Amino acid sequence: MKAIYLTGFMGAGKTTIGEALAERLALPVRDTDKEIERTTGLTIKQIFEEHGEQYFRDLETEILKNLPKDNIIITTGGGIVIRNENRIYMKESGVIILLHADLDVIYDRIHHDSNRPIANKKSKEELVTLYLSRESYYEDCTRKINTDNKSIDDITEEIIQSLKN
Ligand SMILES: Nc1ncnc2c1ncn2[C@@H]1O[C@H](COP(=O)(O)OP(=O)(O)O)[C@@H](O)[C@H]1O
Ligand SMILES: O=C(O)C1=C[C@@H](OP(=O)(O)O)[C@@H](O)[C@H](O)C1
Ligand SMILES: [Mg+2]
After folding, report:
1. Considering the domain 3-149 in this protein, what is its CATH number?
2. ipTM of the complex
3. For the residues of 44-68, what is the DSSP string, one character each?
4. Where are the domains of the chain?
């Protein structure tokens, strides 16, 4: 089985759903942000503060390409889609599942989180602007799952069903 990549905007639930999906499918799961933190020994916040976004994006691409491509669930950071080369790589290597969540819900989940430097201290309007600037990049996704008002178990089940089609 080819890799299953979970993508979507910050706070959509990629990391959380990826873990639940991995358990249900008895597959390993790796999270690009966690891999970046593990290999650098720094938090995402520290990387952005000390080295800047470009450095983070270079690491993100490197990590993505070094992760296994079979029998695995890979949860990505929300900005992975910005780079054309990342989108092409994921499309060629596996199935891309887009998790969509309402932006009001997303804002409530993430605006106070200092380890999401791109979202931290942004107003809701600024977050919407960022979302809209990235919206077209999500078109490369194989499947889209709307997560609004759904439990983690329900979303996981929906992904499993969609993978059968
Ligand atoms: N379907 C859901 N229902 C309720 N809370 C959720 C749901 N999905 C995610 N969350 C919560 O939202 C927050 C962000 O989830 P996370 O998995 O870190 O998102 P992402 O990796 O997409 O940024 C976490 O606190 C998580 O527990
Ligand atoms: O959208 C982004 O640019 C980012 C999303 C984050 O991951 P989550 O989507 O898991 O929050 C993390 O990679 C970093 O803070 C940058
Ligand atoms: Mg995450």
Report:
1. 3.40.50.300
2. 0.99
3. HHHHHHHH-HHHHHHHHHHHHHHS-
4. 3-149
